[in-house]
Design brief:
Elements: E1 14-19, H1 23-33, E2 39-45, H2 48-58, E3 62-66, H3 74-83, E4 90-95, H4 101-106, E5 111-114, H5 119-144, E6 158-163, E7 166-171, E8 175-181, E9 184-189, E10 193-196, H6 201-206, E11 213-217, E12 220-223, E13 227-233, E14 237-242, E15 249-252, H7 254-264
Parallel strand pairs: 1-2, 1-3, 3-4, 4-5
Antiparallel strand pairs: 6-7, 6-10, 8-9, 8-12, 9-10, 11-12, 13-14, 14-15
Helix pairs in contact: 2-3
């Protein structure tokens, strides 16, 4: 078994979130993970609701998830992510109880660790994570490589935006960004903020110029000409400060951060 401190040649950083309501357990796991230089702890959470929000915002590769927590437990976190159609990271259940193993693997958990977590057993989990995440990343690159995104057959130059009791017609190029929350799309321009009649971000994006409008996060579509500032966020991720009245900060997914750096030559 390879030395825990070594990293396979060519390995990318694996972002992780730790979720445990017991601080000592979370701190101990964070300490153990320091032995793996390619594991980057993006955040920690102490309850299930906080975990769901962090997973949606940060899009980690890996989540170490305690099973028994007050309120929303670990299994409930996975169910909630699926109900909200939030793409699942690879989940490692970490608990002092073994009776949840069958249910955890039924929910497609990557692994199931019993506390106290043994160093050699954690190494097996990390090797498994490296393998599946590496395969996923290679498949994603292969899918993107062959052709550039085709321009839609019909690009809308005008959009209808509902604000209060009024319906505004706005130029598509004036849109700063659009976002979706609880199935409702909000379109923001320099002058108007309101709801769109499109049902999904994908549907809206397919009707706009792909050279201008960029899906930087599963919940955000931005006009690249209306980016005011690129803001470093955590160790390897970014946020965009947009050119609207509120100077809204929009998260950039890890998958899109590399493209952003190439686009802006960062």
């Amino acid at each position: 078994m390879q030395n825990r401190a070594s990293v396979p040649v060519g390995s990318a950083t694996i972002s992780a979130i730790l979720v445990d309501d017991e601080k000592l357990a979370s701190d101990e796991l964070a300490y153990q993970l320091q032995q793996f230089p390619d594991i980057e702890i993006a955040a920690t959470a102490t309850n299930g609701l906080e975990a769901v929000k962090l997973i949606e915002d940060l899009e980690p590769d890996l989540v170490f998830l305690d099973v028994q927590m007050p309120g929303l437990d670990g299994l409930g976190v996975v169910r909630t992510l699926r109900e909200r159609d939030i793409p699942l990271p690879y989940i490692v259940m970490a608990t002092a109880f073994d009776q949840y193993a069958v249910e955890a693997f039924r929910m497609e958990a990557l692994d199931y660790l019993l506390k106290p977590i043994e160093a050699d057993r954690l190494e097996v989990t990390i090797e498994r994570a490296r393998k599946v995440i590496g395969e996923r990343n290679r498949a994603a690159l292969a899918a993107e490589a062959p052709t550039a995104t085709p321009k839609p057959a019909l690009q809308r130059s005008k959009l209808l935006v509902r604000s209060g009791q009024r319906n505004f017609v706005v130029d598509a190029q004036d849109v700063v960004y659009a976002t979706i929350h609880d199935g409702l799309i909000t379109v923001v321009t320099a002058q108007v903020e309101g709801q769109s009649n499109y049902r999904t971000i994908e549907e809206l994006q397919s009707n706009l110029d792909p050279d201008v409008f960029w899906r930087v996060h599963r919940s955000f579509l931005v006009n690249i000409n209306r980016i005011r500032e690129v803001v470093p966020w955590f160790k390897s991720s970014l946020q965009l400060k947009m050119d609207d009245k509120k100077q809204t900060e929009v998260p950039v997914s890890r998958a899109q951060a590399k493209r952003l750096r190439a686009l802006l030559k960062l």
